[in-house]
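Hey, can you fold this?
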Amino acid sequence: MKKLGLLLGSLLMVGAVAQAKEAVVAPVVVEETVQEVVVAPIVVEEAKPWLRLTRVGQEIEIENNSGGVNIGQDVYFGNSIGLATDNWDLGVTAARFWSADTKEGLKKTNTRMQLDAMRKFKADSFKYSLGTRWRAQKDLDRFYLRGNYATNTGLFAGWVDLFYNSTTGSADSYVLETMPLNVKFGPLTLGYFLAHNEGVGGNKTSITEHQLRTYLDVYKGEKTTLKLENRLTLHKDGDNKDGKSIYGTRGGEYKFGGRNRTYAKVDYKVNEGLNVYAIYGYEIQDAEGFGRDTYYGDFIAGWNYKF
């Protein structure tokens, strides 16, 4: 009996050991939490230059009056560039003038250098600019004070130029040219123009002209625009120091409608930066005391590239 108990105990021990060997110990899985770190890209902003080139362009203009001996009494060719800072618009123009006829061709008559500077301002309901211009030609230096404004809605706008003519060989003068108020009605804009020339020194003359100017946006496509402009003289006269007309029978004095000029302007946008344009103007003149109508033609063509 004792031996049987020992035998049973031995069998139980062997079974337990065998079961322990067969037992599979499950591995311990440690889950790691991965945190994604987003690194923002580093953007290095290049500092804007203090003075920027905004545009370049060229323009040719040919003017002629009826009865003139030349096919182009004044031929103008100019090169211009535009510059800007945060608050200033600047411009430089260099140009030459010629006369043209069928026999002698082009004959150089003058040169021009022009510098412009306009300071930009903004108010709550409108924006405006104030600045200056200097224009130098062979026998002329002209010094400008300039200004313009426009409402944010585009309904009202205007401009003024006040300049002094310093000339060689003739008397100097002060000149005021202004359109104090332009009013826009959809594609139509109406404005009043005033020009006044006051002689100084020995040139005691006074010349004043009033005009009604009309601008019409005829067509605006994806690349092409067509505009018309009309300048109707309401009155123009000129008096000397004695109050007498300085024109007499030479022409130059006009009553209502005595001078009427119309421009047609076509602009074509070649790409985002480049545009080309052409302008043709024609004027009919019926001066007081002159005895016959005269005519004036003006053709302008050019291009601009904006940066």
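Oh, and this one too while you're at it.
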Amino acid sequence: MPSRLPQHAINAAYGSYLACTGCIRALFHAEFRRSYHGPILWILLSTLAIAIAAHVMVFPVRVFLWLVGLTSLKDGLSNALHRSIAAVPFLCVAASRYLYPALFERLFMMGVAIRSPSLASTLAKIHVDYFTWEYALSVVQFTLYRVVLMLILGTGSLVFTPFFGGLFAVVTFSFKVRRMEVVFALSLLVLYLVSRTRSTALELVRLWFDARAIARELFTPFVDRLPALKAQAISNRDSHQICT
């Protein structure tokens, strides 16, 4: 494990570099920019509408808790609400994949073509069915996981202490990244143990979970084609060996 940590760190740094340069290229690519304006606006407006509706529904409860003096319960409810709203962008991305599958596909292919036109041409020839039960179940599973996580965080913070309530999220995160980056998990645990940086550690955990889920949706057009792409590479290699 220790010998693999440097390679993981290099991969993480290289992946961050590719993500940043890819975003910059997308911003300056005129056709690409025109294509994603609509989906991004829809996601932002949907998130804003859901956030406003959630705050309106919870506001009377918060006022009641404030009047009776249960400020700790009011703060816990506010934190749970904010963390729940943070999952809305992922759900909007998942919904846009079903509502606009052609747009989702075109955006991905345009992004790949900026870097490698030949790879984009190869991927475009492989058919992918987006309407699968496996994908629908993954969205439901993520939603249920978020609900359970919020319930555990809220219960732990109110019944026990805020420390043990948030510790569940950090432990879950550490388990998820145990094969990826142990140093990152340990650093996050240290941040959580310090009271002044505890909220920052929880925010990093939430951002990582949401970013991981959204990245999976964005890279689905490539991930779903990997089996066919590998089979095609093996077939070409076997044909080359036969010819030689």
